[in-house]
Design a protein that fits this description.
Strand 10, helix 8 and strand 11 form a beta-alpha-beta unit. Helices cover 39% and strands 18% of the residues. Strands 9-8-7-10-11-12 form a 6-stranded parallel beta sheet, with helices on both faces. The protein is of the alpha/beta class. It is built from 11 helices and 14 strands. The radius of gyration is 21 Å and the shape is globular.
C-alpha cells in the first residue's frame, strides 16, 4: 500500500533555531508571549510542550544551539518559562541544568476545559469505549482494532466509537467488526466534551506524545483511561487508580529525552507496521477486560479521574498566584 505521511518541515530538515521577531507595534516595555520559540529582543515569556520546539524538533539543531539557547533562557529578557508538564521541565533539567530548571514553571493547559461536577453509576447497558486521534497508526489504531475484536469475545456489550482520519488499509477491518461507530475529526471542543461524558473508557494506545491533551480533557470529563506510559501521560493517569498504563512497544522517547525515532516520520510508521501487534493488542484487550468486567472498578476509576484533574487545576492555580 502507498504510505502517506506528512513531510518533514524545513525547520525539521535544517538545524535552525526557532526565532520569533518582536511584533512591530508592540509597546517598547511590553512582555511578549511566544509558543515554542525565542524572541530576538526585549522581554518575553515562552510556553513549551517539550524543549525541542525551540529548534523545530530537530535533534541536531539542539546540539548546535544548546549553549546559545541556555544563555537566552538564563537572561533577564526571559521573564518566565512555562512547561505544559513536569516531563517537559525534567527535559529542561537534563539538557540545560539546574538554573533553567528552577526558572521553569509547570502550567498545565487547562484553559477552556470544563470539569464535570460529579459522576454516578453508569446507566449504560453497554461499556462505551472512545478513541480520538487524527493520526490513526501513530496513535495505536491498528492494535486498538485487534484489541477490541479480542475483548468483544468476552464482553458482548462493548461499544467502540472512533474519531480519526482512517487510512484505507483499515476500512475492511472496520467493516468486519461491523459495530464500530466511525467519525471524521470534525467535532468542536464542546461536542468532544459531550461525547466524553457519554462514554466510559478512553482508549489512547498512542506511540508518540509530547503531552496528551485528549487525556487531560478526558479525565476532566470523568473517563477511565487506557494508555501507554510515555513522557507526560503518567502525570494524568495513575496506573490502577484512574486507568491502566501500558508499556509501549515502540516510542520516540527514552524517559524525558528523545531517542533515534524522534525525527522519523515515514520510517516510524513502517516500524509500527512491523510490530508484533498480537502481543501488544493482547495487553490492550486485557486492560479493557479488567475495567469493563468490573463496573464498580470502572466507576471508581472515573471518579478518580475527576479528582486527579482537580489536583492539576489546583496546582495550576497555586503556581499562578506565585508566578511573580
Amino acid at each position: 500500500s502507498t504510505l502517506k505521511t506528512s513531510k518533514l518541515t524545513w525547520k525539521q530538515k535544517l538545524p535552525l533555531l526557532n526565532i520569533k521577531r518582536r511584533p512591530r507595534n508592540a509597546p517598547k516595555d511590553s512582555v511578549i508571549y511566544v509558543w515554542g520559540g525565542l524572541i530576538l529582543s526585549g522581554e518575553f515569556i515562552v510556553d513549551l510542550d517539550n524543549p525541542w520546539s525551540l529548534v523545530g524538533y530537530n535533534l541536531k539543531a539542539m546540539s548546535i544551539y544548546k549553549k546559545l539557547i541556555k544563555r537566552i533562557l538564563e537572561s533577564k529578557r526571559c521573564i518566565q518559562i512555562n512547561c505544559l508538564s513536569k516531563a517537559c521541565r525534567e527535559s529542561l533539567l537534563q539538557i540545560f541544568g539546574d538554573d533553567i530548571y528552577k526558572k521553569a514553571y509547570v502550567n498545565y493547559p487547562t484553559s477552556g476545559i470544563r470539569l464535570i461536577n460529579n459522576i454516578s453509576s453508569s446507566k449504560n447497558e453497554s461499556i462505551k469505549l472512545l478513541f480520538i486521534g487524527s493520526q490513526f497508526e501513530i496513535k495505536g489504531g491498528g492494535a486498538l482494532l485487534d484489541a477490541y475484536a479480542k475483548a468483544k469475545k468476552n464482553i458482548k456489550n462493548l461499544e467502540l466509537t472512533i474519531i480519526t482520519h482512517l487510512p484505507k488499509e483499515f476500512e475492511s477491518k472496520i467493516k468486519e467488526l461491523n459495530d464500530i461507530k466511525l467519525f471524521s475529526p470534525v467535532f468542536n471542543r464542546a461536542e468532544i466534551f459531550e461525547l466524553m461524558r457519554k462514554n466510559d473508557i478512553l482508549l489512547h494506545p498512542s506511540y508518540m506524545e509530547s503531552f496528551g491533551m485528549t487525556i487531560l480533557e478526558a479525565i476532566a470529563n470523568g473517563m477511565a483511561i487506557i494508555s501507554n506510559d510515555i513522557y507526560a501521560i503518567s502525570e494524568m493517569v495513575i496506573n490502577n487508580k484512574n486507568g491502566i498504563l501500558l508499556k509501549s512497544p515502540i516510542t520516540k522517547w527514552d524517559g524525558f529525552l528523545p531517542n533515534k525515532n524522534f525525527m522519523q516520520k515515514k520510517e516510524f510508521i513502517l516500524q509500527i507496521r512491523d510490530l508484533n501487534q498480537e502481543k501488544y493488542s493482547s495487553l490492550v484487550s486485557n486492560a479493557i477486560l479488567n475495567i469493563g468486567n468490573d463496573r464498580e472498578l470502572m466507576l471508581n476509576m472515573k471518579k478518580e479521574s475527576i479528582k486527579i484533574y482537580k489536583k492539576i487545576y489546583e496546582y495550576n492555580k497555586n503556581i499562578r498566584l506565585n508566578e511573580f
